[in-house]
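step: validate -> pass
step: tokenize input -> pass
step: predict -> running
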Amino acid sequence: MTKFATVTSAAIAAGLLLVATSLSAAENITFWTLNFSSEAANKAFTAVVSDFEAANPGAEVTVVTRGTDDHKTAIRVAAGTDKGPDIYFMWAGLGLGGEYVKAGLSLPLDKYYADYKWDDEVVPAAGSFSRMYPGGRHGVPSSLSGEALYYNKSLFAKAGITSTPANYDELVADAEKLKAAGIPAIAFGGTVNWHVMRLMDVILEAKCGAEKHDALTAMTVKWTDEACVVQSFGELQKWGKNYILSPFMGIDDSQAFNLFLANRAAMMLEGDWLVQQLAEAGKIDDIDLFPFPTRTNRLYGFANYYYVSSKSKNPDLAAKFLDYLLSTPVQQKLLGVSGTTSINKNVTYGELRPMTKKWLDLFNTHDKVFLNGDQAFPLDITTEYFRVINEVVSGNMAPADAAAAMQTFITNKG
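step: predict -> pass
step: emit ->
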């Protein structure tokens, strides 16, 4: 029988790791992942797990879901103990996912990639992240997502905006038009650090360009040596002062989304997963989207991954479940429920919502992706990046001081 549990931060403090060891390791695996973004996604995943158990008598999968920050805390705790999940969700890249590969929490999956021939089913761009870690291939993709600006068509019209911006300066001009019409340009939730971070990421891409942005996140150039860094922090501060729905530092991402649905702000910088949420809210006809106008022809986005824990007592069953999850029939069933595209290259696309088709067009016309900062940076640098962004967007730190703070932290960690 499938077991599902939703765990909060209070439960973490009370002993969240107990749920991972409550079943017989010989026949059971525990899967830690994020809360599902919609009820349809929750039902679809529940059915996948139940079908796997039915096809494998005696096997039992316990799924534990948490919010983003609680999940990060749980994995951090698990990394320091001899307990934890058999499979855990984490983002790909040298930052969040790579931090736990480096810590030894992730089991290399080269054997399973060969045995199950996963490369024959996985979209190459999605699977490529498994090769970026030292010591073998780690994790399998669960999704490849893009992030763009969703906008309220009626609010744009009210502000006299008749077309989407072609560059960053035009976007700022549109934000000014919205402000003049009494409409906050964009909504963010400041209590979750990564939400406002998205705005800094895309401004850096727009102001510094692709090559220099990559060098900054790779820490191969100094943040204090690049004029575009101070410019970018200055732009972030301008958005915080003039264009972000306030007060934003006291709300989270879900509250920001609800305010967007209530026509309180004209835009959100969100991923393709929002399509299903907008549909469920009955707002999909009111909203459209466009990529953040960086002019680098790179799409802002990231890959989500599932990793097998090096502490799993049943890695073969864990890999078997992941193989089932990656399979074409299962991915076909999940298509459109938790994302607009599949990580399985063999699925077929039928009739699509206009917004879903627009996302597919974006994926097809952008052959390069730049990562969210918290996935591009190691975890310790990410923490400082969050702190500096929060100080700047709140007006408590000057842009030049922000660049210096980032470089000082990077230098001292080096």
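step: describe -> The first strand starts at residue 3 and ends at 6.
step: cleanup -> pass
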